[in-house]
Write a structure and sequence with these properties.
Structural class: alpha/beta
Number of domains: 1
Strand order of the largest sheet: 1-3-4-5-6-2
Largest sheet: 6 strands, mixed
Distance between the termini: 44 Å
Strand content: 15-25%
Length: 187
């Protein structure tokens, strides 16, 4: 059984007898990635060895990547895999790693922060804990020559956070295992 997705925009109005939540089309597009994936530790890996493959995005996508989008990974015109962006699994100073689900193989996609639309908790983590996040990998080569990236201690990214939500987000972060492990705040 294969899933198929419509890539063209449908401007027709849905029939009146269809529930509105069933008429929404998925956002589907292609993403160009490097020729070979990396393993969990960042080393190049040509074959899958029990852990997810981490594909690194090469070119800016047509839309910011976010949860729920269905993407097709391509390299040199060849389709590698397809899947739905499920959840952020890792955040570094300059990159986000996202889990792709629903495809033939479990895979992850690593993308630069500016090419992603992060959820509120992920934005909070990146802004609040920027100084403690991993420096590696360095910024995508598209950003390395920009003056805002010259000082590795200054955060070149800006996310609007409501100060009234800070305590609630901090509490939610303590309860969220997927990000608490990154920051080692599970205590």
């Amino acid at each position: 059984m294969y899933l198929t997705f419509e890539l063209q925009k449908n401007d027709q109005l849905p029939p009146n007898n269809v529930a509105p939540h069933l008429t929404n089309k998925c956002t589907t597009y292609e993403v160009e990635v490097e020729d070979s994936p990396r393993g969990r530790q960042g080393s190049r890996q040509g074959s899958e060895r029990g852990s997810e493959l981490v594909w690194t995005i090469q070119d800016e996508p047509i839309k910011p990547l976010t949860n729920g989008h269905i993407i097709t990974l391509k390299s040199r015109g060849n389709v590698i895999s397809s899947g739905r962006i499920s959840v952020v699994t890792d955040i570094t100073k300059h990159w986000v790693t996202m889990l792709l689900t629903g495809g033939p193989r479990r895979a992850k996609l690593r993308a630069p922060i500016p090419w992603c639309h992060l959820a509120k908790l992920d934005r909070f983590v990146h802004t609040t804990y920027y100084a403690t996040l991993a420096d590696h990998p360095p910024p995508h080569n598209t950003f390395t020559d920009r003056p805002s990236f010259a000082n590795p201690h200054d955060n070149p990214y800006e996310f609007d956070l409501d100060p009234r939500e800070t305590q609630g987000l901090q509490d939610k972060l303590r309860r969220t295992r997927r990000l608490a492990g990154i920051l080692d705040i599970t205590k």
